[in-house]
Amino acid sequence: MAEDAPRRQPTLDEVTELAGVSRSVASRALNNAPHVSRAKREAVERAVRQLGYVPNPTARALATRQTGAAALVVSGEDPSIFADPFFAQVIVGASAALEEADLHLMLCLAASDRGRKRVEELLRSKGADGVMLMALRENDPLARMAEEAVMPVVFGGRPVGSAPRWYVDVDNVGGAREATEFLVSRGRTRVAAICGRLDTEAGRARYRGYRDAMLAARLDPFPPQEGDFTEPSGAAAMAALLVNHPDLDGVFAANDNMGAGALRTLREAGRLVPADVAVVGFDDLAVAQIADPPLTTVHQPIAALGREMARMLVALISGQDPTPLILPTRLVIRFSA
Amino acid sequence: MAEDAPRRQPTLDEVTELAGVSRSVASRALNNAPHVSRAKREAVERAVRQLGYVPNPTARALATRQTGAAALVVSGEDPSIFADPFFAQVIVGASAALEEADLHLMLCLAASDRGRKRVEELLRSKGADGVMLMALRENDPLARMAEEAVMPVVFGGRPVGSAPRWYVDVDNVGGAREATEFLVSRGRTRVAAICGRLDTEAGRARYRGYRDAMLAARLDPFPPQEGDFTEPSGAAAMAALLVNHPDLDGVFAANDNMGAGALRTLREAGRLVPADVAVVGFDDLAVAQIADPPLTTVHQPIAALGREMARMLVALISGQDPTPLILPTRLVIRFSA
DNA sequence: GAGAGCACTGGGAGCGCTCCCATTGGGAGC
DNA sequence: GCTCCCAATGGGAGCGCTCCCAGTGCTCTC
Fold it and tell me: Which residues form the HTH lacI-type domain (chains A, B) (predicted)?
C-alpha cells in the first residue's frame, strides 16, 4: 500500500538499510574490497539479492571519473564504408579484448558532419575512457580532434603523413611487397597495381610495397590505377588497365574487393586467370574464398588488429605507456596466382 | 604558478564564475532553455569558449537519469557470427537513426558467458536508455534477461516461438515464398531448400515460405537441408542434396552465403547454373553480386531494419507506444535463376 | 494605484555512488 | 598491564550536473 509506487531501481542506501550496515561497508562489499567482516559481507549479499539491486553505472562513473566504456570511431565521408566486413572483424577482436578489461564498446560512425561533431564532443568531454580511431584520410578533421582529446587515443592504421604516438597497424608495405614478389617469382613481368584510395595510408603503403618489389626485380612499376576499395571500382580499374596495357600478365590489387572486381572484368574480357593474367589481392576476407577462381591474397590479422588496439588502449587507460605495434601479414596462395 | 596543476576539465561552476552568473542560468544557457537574458547568455557562451568547457555527460546522465546511449546486442554462441556483413548494415542504419536522436551506440557481442553476464547487468542497471536485441536463438537466455530489463527493448527479428511486444522484422515467409514461386514460374518442379539454422526464426520462416509456395503449386516440398548460414555449410548442403536428389532442378537457399556455397558445389559437380539447376538466395548482400553467376536473390532492407529498430527504440524511450513493423522484401533477378 | 502576470535570477537539494578519514576495539608484543 | 597496530566501521564530503522553487523587478490591466 505504501510501496506501490512506480518502483524505482533500488539504491545502495536501501541495501544499506536492509543489511544494517553503513554505506561504506556496503560499497566495499560490492566491490570486493577488503576491510569487511564475513558477516557483514554476507548480509550485504543477501540484501542485494532480496532487493534485486544492481549498481547504477552512471553514479559509479561520476564518482570514479571513469565511464567504463571505450569508443571505436570509424571515419569516412560515407557511412557505407563501414559495411566493409573488415570493420566487423576489427570489432570482434576489439570487443573481446575490451570485455576482458570490463569495458563497454561504443561505436561511432563519423560520416556526417553531425557525426563528426558528436565525436568531437565525445573526445573533449570525457564521454569515454579512451578512443580507437580508424580509417582516417588525408587531412581528416578527426586527426586534429584527436589531439585535443582529454583521454587516450589509439590509431588503427597510421593516418596519412604523420605517425601518432600510439597506433596498431598492419605491415602494408611488407605484405604488398611479398604479393608482388610472388607474382614475379611466377614469371610475371608486366604486373600492374590496382591501388586503393591514395588519400589513405593503407592505399599508399600498399602501392609503395608493390613499387619497391618491382624496382627490386628490375621491372617497371605501373603508375597507380586508383580504385576506392570496392568491387565495382576494382572492375573498372581492371577495364582501364586492359585498355592501356593489353599485354599485362599480372595484377596486384590492394584489397580483395577490388581483386574480385578485377577477376570479374578479366572473365568478361575472356582472359584466363591465372593462365593469362595472375591476380593477387589483399585482406583475405570471405570474398577471397568465394571469388572465382579463389583469390591468392595477403592475409592480414584483422581481428588481431582490433584486439591489439583495444589492449593498447586498456594499457594506456591504466597508466602504462605501450609501444606502437605493426602486425605481420602472410601470403595465402589459392588459385588466382 | 598557481595554476600549473594537471589541468582538470573545467566545470560548470568555473563557467559560472567567469561569466558572473548563477549555475542555474549557465545550465539553462547551455541547454538553450528559456528564461535567460541575451546578455547573460552571451556571457556564458564567451566563458564557455574561453575555458574550452564541455559538459560532462556522466554528470548530466546522473542528474537527468538518462544515459544518452542505446545498446545493440547481438547474440550468438560464437562471436564470428557477427562477422556477417549483415550486422554491419544493420549498424549503419541504426547508427544513423540514433544520431538523429542524439544517442550514442553501444555494441554488445553477447557470445561468451562473460559477455552475456555483462549484457544482463546492462539490462538491469540502467546502463543505457534502451536496447536492441538481435539474433536470438531458441531458448536464448537473452530472452529471459530482456524481460527483467529496466528499459525499453526492441527485437530485431522475432525470437523463435514468441512474438515480443516490440520488434522489427523482415517478411521472411513472404520473401521465401516469392523466391520459390519464381523458381516454379520458370518451370522448375524439383526445387530443394537449403535452409538456415532451424533454431532461428529466420531459418524457420524462410523454410515455411518455401514450403507454402511448393504446396500451393502442388509440388512436393523437400525436407529441410539444414545449413548454418555460412558459405561452406551451403556447399556441404548442396553436395548432400546432389547425392540424395540428383535430379533436382532448382534450389532455394535461405541466404546468399549458402547460395554462393551451393553455386560452388554445383560448379565443381559440373552442373550448369541456371541451365541445369536454378538457384535463388536471400539477403542480397555483396556476395550475391560477386558470385558466379551473380545470384538471383531476395533483397531485404537491412539498413532499414537497423534504422527502424532504432527509431522504434527512440519512440519507446520518449514514452510513445509504437507498433511492431514488418519490412517488405523484393526479388532481385540476376543470372542464377 | 493596486494587483496580476511574467521574464529573469540564484539558492540549494538532489541524482547514486566512491573514498578519505576519524573512530573503535581487540590481540600481539614487551 | 600498557602501548602499538591494524582490521573493521560509519560519517560525510564530494563527483558535475539538473531542476524545483522562491524571490525580484517590471509592464499591463482595470
Answer: 10-64
Q: Residue B4: is its pLDDT beyond 80?
A: no
Query: Which candidate, A286, A231, A220, places its Cα nearest to that of A253?
Result: A231
Neighbour tally for B66: CB within 10 Å: 15
Please tell me which residue of chain A has the smallest CA distance to B64.
A58
Beta strand B104-110 pairing with A104-110:
antiparallel
Regions of chain A short of the pLDDT cut 50: 1-6
Q: Which amino acid is at B139?
A: N
Distance CA A234, CA A260 (A): 7
Question: Taking a C-beta distance cutoff of 8 angstroms, is the pair B174, B212 a contact?
Answer: no
pLDDT in the model for residue B277: 98
Q: Has domain B69-170+303-327 been given CATH number 3.40.50.2300?
A: yes
Q: Say yes or no for a CB contact (<8 Å) between B115 and A99.
A: yes
CB-CB neighbours of B148 under 10 Å: 10
Listed in sequence order, the residues at least 6 apart from A26 whose beta carbon sits closer than 8 Å to its beta carbon are A12, A15, A16, A19, A44, A47
For residue A85, give the nearest of B83, B95, B126 by CB distance: B83
**Residue B223 pLDDT grade (very low, low, confident, very high; cuts 50, 70, 90):** very high
Which phi and psi angles does A325 have, rounded to 5°?
Answer: -135, 135
pLDDT digits (tens, 9 = 90+) for B58-78: 999 999 999 999 999 999 878
pLDDT of residue A198: 93
User: For residue A74, what is the enclosing H or E element?
Assistant: strand A69-75
Amino acid B83: pLDDT: 84
CATH number of B172-299: 3.40.50.2300
Instruction: Render pLDDT for B242-265 as a digit per residue (tens, 0 to 9).
Output: 999 999 999 999 999 999 999 999
Task: Tell me A278's DSSP state.
Answer: E
Q: Is strand D within 7 Å of residue A275 (CB)?
A: no
Nearest CB to B92 within list A80, A91, A124: A80
Q: Chain centroid to CA A290: how far?
A: 23
CB < 8 Å to A286, chain B: 83, 231, 257, 287
Distance from CA(A43) to C1'(D1), angstroms, rounded: 37
Q: What 3 state SS string does A295-328 have?
A: CEEEECCHHHHHHHHHHHHHHHHCCCCCCCEEEC
Grid cell, residue A329, equals: 601479414
Q: Which nucleotides of D are covered by protein (CB under 7 A)?
A: 7-21
Question: Residue B148: pLDDT above 90?
Answer: no
Direct distance between the N- and C-terminal alpha carbons of chain A, in angstroms, rounded to an integer: 78
pLDDT at B1 over 50: no
**Residue B3 pLDDT greater than 50, yes or no:** no
B299-318 mean pLDDT: 97
Residue B121, CA atoms < 13 Å, CB-side half-sphere: 15
Per-residue flag: A11 CB under 7 A of strand C: yes
Instruction: Kindly indicate the confidence band of residue B135, based on its pLDDT and cuts at 50, 70 and 90.
Output: confident
Q: How confident is the prediction for chain B on average, in pLDDT? A: 93
CB-CB contact of B116 with B141 (8 Å): yes
CATH of domain A69-170+303-328: 3.40.50.2300
The CATH 3.40.50.2300 domain(s) of chain A lie at: 69-170+303-328, 172-299
| Range(s) within chain B of domains with CATH label 3.40.50.2300 | 69-170+303-327, 172-299
Cα distance between residue A95 and residue B72, in whole Å = 13
